DNA sequence: CGCGGTTTGGACTTGAGGGTCCAAAACCGA
DNA sequence: TCGGTTTTGGACCCTCAAGTCCAAACCGCG
């Protein structure tokens, strides 16, 4: 089972080719033949590099795609330490998803392998990393006094994650970013405005 | 093609049976045989009542389920005219989805028929009705002076829709309602706190 | 050059599942 | 009761796609 350099290159080519295929035109159901065609490989190669078949292959692609999701939000996501950075981040997120349109390769993938146990892990891990970046950003803002100290950073980060996800979901069925923008604006403004449930006697 | 009373009853039994089956244990892929088993019908009945086959059947089930989504949030969703109503609504939503757990019959359905054109319509229609209820609620709150008049009701309603969707999505992969609660709290508190981007010179 | 391995091509098998069809049963109005 | 219509059962067909397998090509190495 030791792959040579050539072997590893082929494996990678399969993953990237499959990812590209998924990103191109909405492919209701992906078949191994589609992937074969998109990557100019043979059936035996697919099973050679992914012995557990389609499941394993799609999971690898999902992993690959999920890394891109966060990478695409950099460098802003990594240093949300000023209101300007937050605005930039918002811009990048909206731009990215507007460009992507109703197609979401990751969602499509997860949909196809939702039955296998590993799929949930990929999603969960992505969400966790995403949320962690946001949490750090909020903490940084608190340290520099731009966000009120009583804000629960983790919970607010969770709200951002949920909001973004929801915006993207809605985008998938409506095709426009109105909801995504609305929820991001609401949450950022909420963050600016001093956090949850200010005591009445403030 | 005119169904008698008995026929209509059978058709309905199929829809409800299929919905029940989808709601029960996570059924990766639904097959007509699954539905047959779950509803004690024969193949010919399925095609008799849904001439376009699986597609049409699942779409009908999706429609049925999507009506339930809103019905489950009543009566609160229909009269969000006090902070108390909003809190009750929040409670009901969270309770419903907590009970549902990571399974989302509607999402599962849409996933299966995402290729057929009608599927997007079912989702879009559901989201539109949902948002409209929220919008009315916000307007009512503005009329009674509980929400600042400069809040954009439609946009804020959109933020709620996106947030809720996202919370549910995250719930699907983590299994708990932390994110859903966080985003709902953030948005409600945002609403209470005076809305988006208050002019600096207020 | 020959010998181990890895890599590749592609024909073949297999099974699942959607959809068709016909005939039997039940139903209903006259 | 009778004839037409609706409803139901279930055997059958047919396609599509995952997975298997074997042999050929390739590649490095002594």
Question: How would you characterize this protein structure?
Answer:
The structure is a homodimer of 202-residue chains. The first copy, chain A, is mainly α. Chain A has a single domain, classed as Tetracycline Repressor, domain 2 (Orthogonal Bundle), CATH 1.10.357. Chain A is 71% helix and 0% strand. Chain A has 9 helices and no strands. In chain A, helix 4 packs parallel to helix 7 and helix 8 packs antiparallel against helix 9. The radius of gyration of chain A is 20 Å and the shape is elongated. Chain A starts with a helix and ends in a 10-residue tail after the last helix. The relative contact order of chain A is 0.10. At the A-B interface, helix 7, helix 8 and helix 9 of A face helix 7, helix 8 and helix 9 of B. Chain A binds a DNA duplex (30 and 30 nucleotides) through helix 1 and helix 3.
Return the string of H and E elements of chain A: HHHHHHHHH
Structure annotation, total helices of chain A? 9
Kindly provide the name of the CATH class of chain A.
Answer: Mainly Alpha
CATH architecture of chain A: Orthogonal Bundle
Supply the number of structural domains of chain A.
Answer: 1
The N- and C-terminal alpha carbons of chain A lie at a distance of: 66 Å
Strand content of the residues of chain A, in percent? under 5%
Low-confidence stretches of chain A: 195-202
What is the CATH topology descriptor of chain A? Tetracycline Repressor, domain 2
Oligomer: homodimer
Greatest contact pair?
Answer: A-B, 41 and 43 residues
Shape of chain A: elongated
């Amino acid at each position: 089972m030791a792959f040579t350099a050539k072997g590893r290159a082929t494996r990678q080519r399969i993953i990237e080719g499959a990812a590209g295929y998924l990103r191109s035109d909405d492919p209701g159901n992906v078949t191994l033949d589609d992937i074969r065609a998109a990557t100019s490989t043979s059936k035996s190669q697919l099973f050679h590099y992914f012995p557990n078949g389609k499941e394993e292959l799609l999971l690898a692609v999902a992993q690959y795609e999920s890394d891109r999701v966060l990478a695409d939000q950099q460098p802003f996501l990594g240093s949300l330490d000023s209101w300007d950075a937050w605005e930039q981040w918002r811009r990048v997120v909206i731009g990215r998803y507007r460009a992507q349109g109703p197609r979401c390769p990751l969602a499509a993938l997860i949909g196809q392998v939702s039955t296998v146990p590993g799929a949930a892990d990929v999603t969960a891990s992505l969400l966790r990393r995403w949320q962690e970046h946001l949490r750090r950003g909020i903490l940084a803002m608190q340290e520099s006094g731009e966000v009120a100290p009583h804000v629960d950073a983790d919970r607010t980060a969770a709200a951002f994650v949920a909001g973004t996800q929801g915006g993207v979901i809605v985008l998938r069925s409506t095709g426009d970013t109105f909801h995504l923008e609305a929820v991001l604006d609401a949450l950022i403004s909420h963050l600016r405005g001093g956090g949850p449930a200010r005591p009445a006697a403030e």
